[in-house]
Amino acid sequence: MSKQTMKSHHTDYVLPAEWSEQSGVQMTWPHAATDWLPYLEDITHTCVEMARIIVRYEPLLIVIPDPAPVKARLYDEIDARWHSRLHFFACPTNDTWARDHAVLTLIASDGRVLPLDFKFNGWGEKFPSVLDNTINSRLAAVGFFSVVPEDHTDFVLEGGSIESDGRGTIFTTSQCLLAKNRNFPCKKSFIEAQLKAYLRAKRVVWLDHGNLIGDDTDGHIDTIVRTAPDDALLYIGCNDADDEQFDDFRALEQQLMTLRTADGKPYKLLKLPMPEAIFDGQERLPATYANFLIINGAVLCPTYNQPRKDAEAMQTIAQAYPGREVIGIDARTIIRQHGSVHCLTMQFPRGLF
């Protein structure tokens, strides 16, 4: 595999929008040494279904300590036409949330790519993360990426905490990026300057509302607001005044209405429904339709066995990303560990592998 050698500052890099052309997706597979043990077969079934869909559209990298059993199962359950799109990497892992420990990849106007490796600290040292924090360097060491990642492992940044429009605007949330368990005692001005420098961004938009109850990431933006073509923003809205999240999400909606694009125009706002509350015992889980994955030719949308709201969410997503097939993924098992479809995956732009 050839390696790029041009220095990153010689080219106009940007963090691409997720709907840009991709070279593949990473999933970090569940196994018995993770928190998934009590329902390992259920989550494995969900991951197999996601893998089966993804490889119809693009390659899939699966990271897992022992690939052999997973490879055998996927080869058995996935049409042989797509087997060549499956890639496996043996690596010790703590958990499954590729969105937050995988590389973030910039792309330049001439097609060059630049992966960035940030520090992952288990969402503020809430959970073990030492092994997951080595995955990127291990992949780089075996030459998986077409260019060696830029090392920024002195700075904590999770993929789920930022959202890009592909034109130099980064969206994030104050609650997450300013959390004391990330880059404390760094101030907001410093964090914003770092985001602009590392991600080659022109501006950073901070959202101050919309934290889902049960979200242990401290408010990742990919659970509440997503970018779409033509200056559109999809966001979770709450119409139930009796829902304890109503006021916070009404404030989010009001803030979004005040935002302007880099050209000074209002955003086109597309409201996604708030799922009916889902509980694990007495604990409310952070179910959301915003945590969808965009791939080449399709969007994988989380569903929660709520037919009316599932359909409404999928219709809104189809409106935002015309020309893509919108495919529902039953996320009821994923949400038991407080994540969803987007959290389990990381897309790589064209040219990374």
From TrEMBL:
Pfam families: PAD_porph. GO terms for molecular function: agmatine deiminase activity; protein-arginine deiminase activity. Transmembrane segments: none annotated. It comes from the Bacteria. GO terms for biological process: putrescine biosynthetic process. Keywords: Hydrolase. The keyword Hydrolase applies. The keyword Cell cycle does not apply. InterPro entries: Peptidyl-Arg-deiminase_porph. PANTHER family: AGMATINE DEIMINASE-RELATED. This is Agmatine deiminase. It comes from Hoylesella pleuritidis F0068.
